[in-house]
Structures are given as C-alpha cells and as structure tokens.
Amino acid sequence: MLTGVETAGLVLAVFPILVSALEHYREDHEPLGDWWEFEPEFLRFLDVIRRQANLFNENLEQLLSHHDFQRRHELSLLDDPTGDAWRDLGLEAKLW
User: Fold this and answer.
1) Cα separations (Å) of 23 from 27, 45, 84?
2) Where is the signal peptide (predicted)?
C-alpha cells in the first residue's frame, strides 16, 4: 500500500511522461487531414496538463520547504520522483 508521500512521488513522475506522450501523439498525428480541427483542442489540453504539473511541483516544493529538510534532500525528492528518498519512513512523519 502506498503512503501519501509515495503517491506524491508517483504523481510527480507521471506528469513528464504524460506531457511527453501527448507531444509524441501530436507529432505522429499532425500529418492527418483532420488535425487542423483537433489541434486547438489538443493544444489547450496539453497546456492544462503542463499547468497542473507546474502547480503540483510548486505545491510540493512549498510543502517541503516548510519543514526541516536539508536542501540537498529536498532536491533529491524533486529530481528523482521514483527514488528511495520517497520511501524514507521518517519522511511522512516529518510532513505531518
């Protein structure tokens, strides 16, 4: 069972993958004749996903900055969303 902290790390890892997948989808389907009808909607959706990823990252940075973390540890959490730092048993206790 995932803890809240591990879930945050998982979400942090999913945003870049989702944005990358959507950008590749766009590149692959741009040559299609109906793309011009779909493109504005798709680009709005991609912008929303990017904004949500940025908001999530900012919230996570703010949450981590309010606690007694060493800056190096905080950066390792943000830079490696699937890393072992998220599985630290004391981390969740520090955040509560």
Assistant:
1) 6, 11, 29
2) 1-21
Which pLDDT score is estimated for 49? 92
pTM for this one?
A: 0.52
Domain boundaries, position 40: 4-95
Calpha distance 41→31 (Å, rounded): 16
Would you state the pLDDT for residue 52? 92
Into how many domains does the chain fold? 1
Buried b (16+ CB within 10 A) or exposed e, 48-82: eeeeebeeeeeebeeebeeeebeeeebeebeeebe
